[in-house]
Amino acid sequence: MPLRVAGVSKTFAASDGASVQALDDVSLEVRDGEFVSLIGPSGCGKSTLFQIIGGLLQGDRGTVAVDGNALNGSRRDIGMVFQEESTFPWRTVLDNVAFPLELAGLGKAEREERARRFVRLVGLDGFERKFPDELSGGMRQRTAIARTLAFEPRILLMDEPFASLDEQTRILLGDKILQIWRELKQTTLLITHNITEAVQLSDRVAVMTYRPGRIKRIVEIDLPRPRSSEIIASAEFGRYVGLLWQDLREEASRGMADAERTTA
Amino acid sequence: MARRTLAIRLAMLLALWAVWEIAARSGLFYEGIIPSSFLVLDSMGRHVGDPVFYGHLARTLYEVLAGFALGSAIGLAGGIVVGAHRFTDEASAPYLHGFASTPKIVFLPILMLLFGAGPGSKVGMGAFSAFFPAVIAVAAGMAQVSPVHVKVARGFNASFLQIVRKIYLPSLVAPAITGMRLGLGVAIIGVLLAEIKFSDRGLGHLAIQHYNFFRVADMYAVLLLTFALAVLANALMGRVGKALLRRPVPA
Ligand SMILES: Nc1ncnc2c1ncn2[C@@H]1O[C@H](COP(=O)(O)OP(=O)(O)OP(=O)(O)O)[C@@H](O)[C@H]1O
Ligand SMILES: [Mg+2]
């Protein structure tokens, strides 16, 4: 199912009376079954866009359409994985993953059976009865991903799901994500500020400007599929990373200067 | 528990007992103020074997449990209402915290006017005491409910009621248990104080009876038995709390 974001803008009223324009006329299309990454410096409005697409936040202008239909109310087709720690500490891994099925009113036996499949898919078999505080950060994030997958969305939205993880875990989880994507074939939009991750996983990478967030440029990643993380060593891969960094450097510097000005 | 902790606890108990016994036999105190621990132990044995004691115990248990249950229930519900909005939370905070730190015994006359001199006013004291820790802990807990958890549920199209049942309530289990543990303690205090002040039955009444007739060893015996009861109740609450916290949430 294709996802189309058209002309989305959002301005926040800050607590000190000033206002922050987070998004300015953002348009982006993710084709059916495509893997697109959205990359941008910290504070450029990525999470804001994520929440608007997911229907948790109202944009000031613009539309979000799934399969050609503008979204309003029900978002059965979009599954969200959040940037922050989001597993429920009072539920076991299995009960966390079964959560969306429980909301849908499925019986215990059926939802556990279905949840098991997604626990296996993210490689957490054997940990079904553990609580989140007994897991590593990476395992908790995989639990959150499995929970969203159990919702069986046609469109998968992820907001920096690996931001808090170390580089090696992140790269390996990238492989896992690609393997799941091949199996489930959802249209995927991954939000990240990690260039390697964006190139490793995506068909296309959209670069955002720093405040107000706009789409600066879209880079087609013409690397062979199926990919594994070994591709990181290739010259081709390095070229894409370099290319994206050129685009991002200017934005990131502006973001940093901005942060220094406000803290000074 | 570590064996060392246990050993130290035992040693503390022995030391306390030795100090007591030495003080009792030293003749430094006016006769009878500190009776020999053996007299107290003997009296405890007699109390435990006496059906009359169980009448008092049953009354106190009833008053504590009924008051605790009533106060906790109202406190938990009130905490959810108060904590639901920042406005209600901020508006009510000075009253709740003010009342919470006022000794509830000053309200005993009012409770006696309302519920009579019998068990009613004691249940009222227990409820009144248990209410404040519960309401304050749960109201604070409401503010701690993770916004991300709520967003996750909304992202899965959860209804308002589902969000309350599956996000808010489980998030409130820990603060509710904290509030109720404190609540049980102050409910016991409230009930016993009320019994000591004015009553016809109960452990507090029994202790004050012994006191009035200068049966000091008997008085200590009742106090120690009451103390054991409070320790037991607290340990039990701790157990229940741990079990509740670790139990996977039912559908
Ligand atoms: N609820 C809000 N109220 C006011 N300002 C907000 C709010 N949410 C976000 N902002 C502001 O909007 C801008 C974009 O925030 P957003 O969280 O979308 O950034 P981000 O790109 O996700 O950053 P990061 O990479 O650090 O997660 C920031 O300047 C932030 O301070
Ligand atoms: Mg963000």
3D structure, described in words:
The complex is a heterodimer of chains A (264) and B (251). With 264 residues, chain A is of the alpha/beta class. Chain A has eight helices and ten strands. Chain A folds into two domains: 3-77 and 155-169 and 183-263, Rossmann fold (3-Layer(aba) Sandwich), CATH 3.40.50; 85-152, no CATH class. Helices cover 38% and strands 23% of the residues of chain A. In chain A, the strands form two sheets. In chain A, strands 6-7-8-3-9-10 form a six-stranded mixed sheet, sandwiched between helices. In chain A, helix 4 (108-121) packs across helix 5 (137-150). Chain B has a single domain (48-246), classed as MetI-like fold (Orthogonal Bundle), CATH 1.10.3720.10. The mean pLDDT of chain B is 90. The interface between A and B is medium-sized, with 27 and 22 residues. Residues 12, 14, 20, 22, 40, 42-48, 83, 193 of chain A line the site of adenosine-5'-triphosphate (ATP).
List keywords for this structure.
heterodimer; A: 264 residues; alpha/beta; Rossmann fold; 2 domains; 6-stranded mixed sheet; 4-stranded antiparallel sheet; 8 helices; 38% helix; globular; B: 251 residues; mainly alpha; MetI-like fold; 10 helices; binds adenosine-5'-triphosphate; binds magnesium ion
- What kind of sheet is the major sheet of chain B? none
| First-residue to last-residue Cα separation of chain A | 47 Å
Q: On the 0-100 scale, what is the average pLDDT of chain A?
A: 90
Give the CATH architecture of the largest domain in chain A. Answer: 3-Layer(aba) Sandwich
Total domains of chain A? 2
Rough outline of chain B: elongated
Largest interface: A-B, 27 and 22 residues
Number of strands of chain A: 10
- Overall CATH class of the largest domain in chain A: Alpha Beta
Overall geometry of chain A: globular
Structural class by secondary-structure content of chain B: mainly alpha
How much helix, percentage-wise, in residues of chain B? over 70%
Order of helices and strands of chain B: HHHHHHHHHH
Rg value of chain A? 19 Å
Order of helices and strands of chain A: EEEHEEEHHHHEHEHEEH
